[in-house]
């Protein structure tokens, strides 16, 4: 299973590229005030003003330096955040909110004290790539099964997996009325038949574990090596980095 890591470019380009005009509903959403759909409702109700003028126009563009107020209160929108973490064991990722012991947010909090949610959940034993963003439009895109977001996992099982069981994974496994399948499975070069690489679209670590459990395997290790074209190149376990402008543009074009 081969893939080409993307070449890293200057992160400063991303910082320059994000300070542009922004739709009013996205401005409110990035501020953590509400979703974009809710923002459209607030705008239609005349609750939002820009530079002292009530705005009810859908698609209104906010410029850098504009003063936006919601129900009389000043709104300060956060800059878009795009982070990639190489998650270590022992931490948990959840987009459900609430207080969680050893949350992955603790690993990025030194640079981003605000709560930036990860895309998807990842249990404590699972390691590998985890993407964080406050860009609501991109979150929806990456969570859309029709977009076919490619993921690559390296998995160690409690026993060897046969070619027949691999074909079952490719054909599809039924879980709670839904059929899930993987794109490809290969034995890891130089490893045993307990060690496999799995390519799949929009498949969470939790769902993949349940598929393997249904085939009577116990997952001893699972590491996500690739997420939507992003790799672990130059990203040690437990570390994170900002995405480059090129990487952000690539994700937004998916």
- Total count of helical runs of at least 4 residues: 8
SSE ordering: HEHHEEEEEEHEHEHEEEEHEEEH
Could you say how many structural domains there are in total?
3
Count the beta strands: 16
Distance between the termini: 22 Å
Based on CA atoms alone, the radius of gyration comes out at 21 Å
What do these coordinates show?
It contains eight helices and 16 strands. With 254 residues, it is an alpha+beta fold. Strands 7, 8, 9, 12, 13, 14, 15 and 16 form an eight-stranded mixed sheet that branches. A four-stranded antiparallel sheet has the order 3-2-5-6, with no helix packed on it. The chain starts with 10 loop residues before the first helix and ends with a helix.
Tags for this entry?
disordered N terminus; single chain; Alpha-Beta Plaits; eight-stranded mixed β-sheet; alpha+beta; four-stranded antiparallel β-sheet; elongated; 3 domains; 254 residues; 8 helices; Structural Genomics Hypothetical 15.5 Kd Protein In mrcA-pckA Intergenic Region, Chain A
Quick structural gist:
This protein has helices at 11-17, 24-30, 36-44, 105-108, 136-142, 163-171, 205-214, 245-252, and strands at residues 22-23, 48-50, 53-54, 61-62, 68-70, 73-75, 82-87, 127-133, 150-157, 173-175, 178-180, 184-187, 195-201, 219-227, 230-231, 240-242. With 254 residues, the protein is of the alpha+beta class.
